[in-house]
Predict the 3D structure of the following.
Amino acid sequence: MNDNPRARAWLRLAAVYFAVGVIFGVLMGATGDHSLLPLHAHINLLGWVSMALFGLVSAAYPSISVGRLANAQFWMHNVGVPMMLGALMLKLRGVEAAEPVLGVASMVVGLGVLLFAWLVFTRIGAESRSVQPPGGRVAA
Ligand code: HEM
Ligand code: HEM
């Protein structure tokens, strides 16, 4: 692994979402009020799990985390996810006006994930072909 600043940013963000997601989980368990279940699930899955994986993939394959497309993917996820979770919380609390924001934010997150898939397909193989000798990766 390496000290890729983008990997570090993803992992720190992931840890924050993990802490918040688990606090919601404990609160749901303690109060018996499971009405915020989708919020808890998506804080943990789009926040902690997805961001930790983005961080680990960025550490293993730094080429996936540089350039304009990688920046766009970073910001789409980091603007889309909190917007989506905020709107989801309002909707679960009965604020119907949050619905269109939830829709737009979901699309931003979805497009960011498609961009990540594109980066995986276009960058990961290309990295090993262009900078590494035959036979595998060079240890950093
Ligand atoms: C201290 C840690 C946690 C506690 C106390 C906790 C508690 C809960 C509770 C009370 C529910 C509602 C169950 C129900 O109404 O059926 C729930 C659902 C859920 N939790 Fe957690 N949780 C914790 C951590 C996590 C983590 C780390 C993840 C993901 C990485 C996670 C993912 C989910 C998911 C996906 C659901 C929805 C499951 C379904 O659709 O039935 N939870 N959790
Ligand atoms: C743009 C991204 C996403 C959108 C718009 C979305 C939307 C939804 C919706 C509408 C539901 C049904 C909720 C309900 O019945 O109340 C759901 C459930 C669920 N989703 Fe997602 N999802 C997204 C991303 C993800 C990701 C990345 C994961 C896992 C890594 C995930 C895991 C789950 C799980 C486990 C459930 C069942 C628990 C629950 O009801 O909240 N979702 N999602």
Residues 37-38, 41-42, 45-46, 49-50, 106, 109-110 surround protoporphyrin IX containing FE (ligand 2) (CB under 6 Å). Residues 5-131 form one domain.
